[in-house]
Amino acid sequence: MGTMRAPHAPLDAPEPLAAAAAGELLQAVLADPVFGILVTDEAGRVATHNARFLELFSLEGDLTGLEEAQVVGRAARATVERGALPQAALESEEGEVHATVELRDGRVLRGAVRSLRSVGWGRVWRFRDITAKTRANERARTAEQRLTEVQAVARIGTWSYDVAAEQVRWSPELARLYGIDLLAESAPMDVVYESYVRPDGDRLRAAATSALVRAAPFTVRGRIKHPGGGIRVIEVRGRPVRGEDGRVTRMIGTGRDVTDEAQVRAAVEVAANDAGGLDGAVANAGKGAGLPILMTHADMLRDTFEPNVIGAFNTIKCAALAMRDHGGGSIVAVSSISGKLGGRFRAAYAASKAALDMLVKVSADELGPFGIRVNSVNPGLVPTPATAAITDDDDLAEVREDYLDQMPIRRLGTADDVGGFVRFLLSDDAAWITGQALPIDGGHTVRRAPNLESALRARLGDEAIDRAVGPRWR
Q: I need a labelling partner for 213 at 20 to 30 A (CA). Which of 115, 125, 186, 468 fits?
């Protein structure tokens, strides 16, 4: 009931509460500058109160000696719902009752009425002003509602996962994205994982599990086989939510199709409308793939081109449409050193990134007259969830060392390295740069592509690789 402090003056308390500890407790409570306090005796009369109590309920004068019912009546006149305070007093005969009351002047008070009959007193009233907190919560709820409306416009699906029940609820929009029946009241998360192309479903499962353990947000992009035909790339974002006991009780999130031009257009329109125009955009959806050509199927090529080229095309086109009528802007696509170096076992990935770089070059040529700059960055090896197998796995240390051997500046990149370069290209400092595919790789592109053969042999076996590329490469 507040910080204990030495009493300012002795209380004229009944004998059961004459003990020094009880007196100190009441004095400390009364001296609390935040809470309004009123204490009644066993006969139901006001024994003491502080000035803050008068301020909170807009009362005047000394209330000492008045019947509690009189004080309750006066205080209730200041409230919107007059029955809240009398009801709290009535229900607190043998314990403690919490109450929230709204005052006619717009303030909101929160407090409790607690029985003190076990120690020879009547009750203690303890209230504080929570108007600022209440208004902040109202603003948060309003913002959340507006966010929901924006998501509907942008065609972004939402989901909520109950940790205890191990069940997930999905919005109709997300059910449409996945093309499976998720409109039932709830469904196991496995229903979603199983809709993904392997190993993308396993990556989503691992990311969600890790997020729950670490109580940290996550973002994962993965491919699903849509029942309507074709491969779709869904970006899933999730955020754990803690309960009152501090433990994670549920996880909430969104999902959006990064291969769908209509969705990208809607998302760009929302961003442009909220900001009064669009000045910059980053096309960062991407997917990696690595197999010998003789083991690569056409579907893998399509699956890789879908996010890496089609997704980027959608972003460039929709962003450019928004920028064209607002004086121009800057668009940056995230490519890869593979788009410049190629490299064995990267037919699908390297071809898609080379195509992206050429798309950027053509776009820059066409969009320049509108004041729109378009560039791509070609990062080298940067530790991310997508590259963790190479950057963190000791079994692939040989591959990691080969990467480093090709870098004059011999270290792995960082997200800040790439992010800082992207920010530069988006800024006015790069106002005369367009149509470029710019490496940020520690100098890797002055040498050769990395050798991934040992990783492929470890994963697929010597026999399979020998049949695909020949034993001479061992």
A: 186
